[in-house]
From TrEMBL:
This is TraR/DksA C4-type zinc finger protein. The keyword Metal-binding applies. Keywords: Metal-binding, Zinc, Zinc-finger. Coiled coil: none annotated. Residues 41-65 are annotated as: Disordered. The keyword Chloroplast does not apply.
Length: 128
């Protein structure tokens, strides 16, 4: 039976995806923790006002860096949430099924974007 005829992935296939997602999740948490530590370090170093007006230009750069780190942290948190939701879909048996077409999402797409809920055809239709 080809992937196009299948309506669900087997338990073994789901286990492969679960391992992939758990690996990505571990890396994502490590990256998020690193970003949070960077934010904390920049806050700690940004509290020294002993330089007076000389620091004004640096303050602008510090603010931009903090904003960038906060945006990065927010994106990373969203990615983690999407991966965790994918694990839930594995457990409830809906993983790998396109939410638009109801067809099976290709393994290649799931390996590249394991938290996706759309087949490539549905994603392309959305963007057009």
């Amino acid at each position: 039976m080809s992937e196009r005829e299948k309506t669900r992935y087997s338990a073994d296939e789901l286990k492969e995806f679960e391992e992939l997602i758990n690996n990505k999740l571990e890396k994502a948490w490590n990256e998020l923790n690193y970003i949070k530590e960077s934010i904390t370090r920049s806050k700690d170093s940004g509290t020294d006002s002993s330089y007076g007006n000389v620091k004004t230009l640096e303050d602008g750069a510090d603010t931009a860096e903090k904003e960038s780190l906060n945006q990065l942290a927010a994106r990373q948190q969203k990615f983690i949430t999407n991966l965790e939701n994918a694990l839930i879909r594995i457990k409830n048996g809906t993983y790998g099924i396109c939410k638009e077409s109801g067809k099976l999402i290709s393994k290649e797409r799931l390996r590249a974007v394991p938290h996706t809920t759309l087949s490539i055809d549905s994603k392309l239709k959305q963007n057009s």
